[in-house]
Amino acid sequence: MKRQTIKTSLFTLTSTAALMTFGSASVHASGEINVYSARSEALIKPLLDIYAKENNVKVNLITGKADALLNRLKSEGDASPADVFITVDAGRLYRAKEAGVLQPFETKHLNKVIPEHLKDRDGYWYGLSQRARVILYNPETVSASDLSTYEDLADPKWKGKICIRSSSNIYNQSLVASMIEADGEKQTLEWIKGLVANFARPPAGGDTDQIKAAAAGVCDIAVANTYYFGRLGLSNKASDRAVFDKLKMFWPNQADNERGAHVNVSGIGITASANNKDNAKQLIDFLTSQQSQEWYAKVNNEYPVIDGVAPPKSLATFGEFKADKVSLSVLGENNRQAVKLMDQGGWK
Ligand code: FE
Fold first, then answer.
1. Cα distance between residue 317 and residue 11, in whole Å
2. Which of 87, 112, 221, 289 has its CA 20 to 30 A from that of 164?
3. How far is the CA of 222 from the centre of ligand 1 (A)?
4. 152-205 residue pLDDT tens
5. Bridging pattern class, strands 126-137 and 263-271
6. Domain 17-130+263-313 matches domain 132-260+332-344 at the CATH topology level
7. Residues 34, 39, 40, 41: what is their CA dihedral angle, to the nearest 10 degrees?
8. Distance, CA 16 to ligand 1 centroid (Å)?
9. DSSP per residue over 50-77, as a string?
10. How close is the Cα of 228 to the center of ligand 1, in Å?
11. Centroid of ligand 1 to alpha carbon of 224 (angstroms)
12. What is the 131 CA–ligand 1 centroid distance (Å)?
């Protein structure tokens, strides 16, 4: 038996069918798919429910923290019941590929709709939703004309004005990985030192905390992912909406000779142990369909990975942007070096 007993209690059953016992032949049954997701249930289950209903496939979902889920996949090995793995950030998707828990695949649909730079170069994972890492600023204290690039954030004119989270965060590691690609290691190390010298405070908290700190006057500039800002604008808490109203979003590196804003993805791969590979492909095609991509924009304020879908409404006033088209595979490949440089540069 390849499969082992798994804890039913950990599964969220998305079909309305009666609870089934895992660890039996049911795991092998066709018309079924097992999803491990590092995204919260609210950010995936509604789509899985639609897919399950439309295709008469039973979808079993386990959610967990990104690193814990990857470790679980590794330790389960061939016995893992998972068919697909969903996680956030190309750096983490790369780690999953390197760990041997994914397998390459393609579909006609994916080949057609997913841009080259938003998927693994060997087909081990594909982007599901896109976000940019941008500059949020207080227009009362910062003039947009003084902002330009990520590189410029190391300029001494920003001394004591910048909030950004710690170097242990994968989003920052991937940003630095993209800068290594664009500017080289030596220049990136100098950039890190300059940026750290401009910190308003030692890094603490997540992206939302940096945005709130900028609105509260702790700093004038925050670096964060787009959806965290968009989310505040749609919050039912007046204090969150006040934060959104107080700040503006700036797209870095937009000039003609610049590479564009750093983007990253939430992404999906088929596990090496998958028993339901055909269902997995069908599900991934569904998640990259027009319908699903619209849902990501609406529910999590994320940008689509396919053409022809409107950007999130909450961020529409900030317009279109030019994205850095560097292959996201490179972010994973440069991750180790990025972490090393951040350490050397004193980014806590
Ligand atoms: Fe996030």
1. 40
2. 87
3. 15
4. 999 999 999 999 999 999 999 999 999 999 999 999 999 999 999 999 999 999
5. antiparallel
6. yes
7. -30
8. 30
9. HHHHHHT-EEEEEE--HHHHHHHHHHHG
10. 7
11. 9
12. 9
DSSP-derived secondary structure for 316-338: GGG---PBP-S-HHHHHHTHHHH
Structural tokens at position 220: 């004038």
What is the residue extent of each domain of the chain? 17-130+263-313, 132-260+332-344
Q: Which CATH class is domain 17-130+263-313?
A: alpha beta
pLDDT in tens, 278-332: 999 999 999 999 999 999 999 999 999 999 999 999 999 999 999 999 999 999 9
Closest CA relative to residue 113, chosen from 339, 293, 330, 317: 293
CATH number of 132-260+332-344: 3.40.190.10
CA–centroid distance, residue 144 to ligand 1 (Å): 25
CA distance 126 to 117: 10
Look at strands 32-37 and 162-163 and give their pairing. Answer: unpaired
- Rounded distance from Cα 265 to ligand 1 centre (Å): 10
Q: How far is the CA of 143 from the centre of ligand 1 (A)?
A: 27
* Distance from residue 69's CA to the centre of ligand 1 (Å): 16
pLDDT value for 3: 40
Q: How confident is the model at residue 20 (pLDDT cuts 50, 70, 90)?
A: very low
State in Å: Cα 227 to ligand 1 middle: 8
**Ligand 1: distance of its center to the CA of 197 in Å?**
25
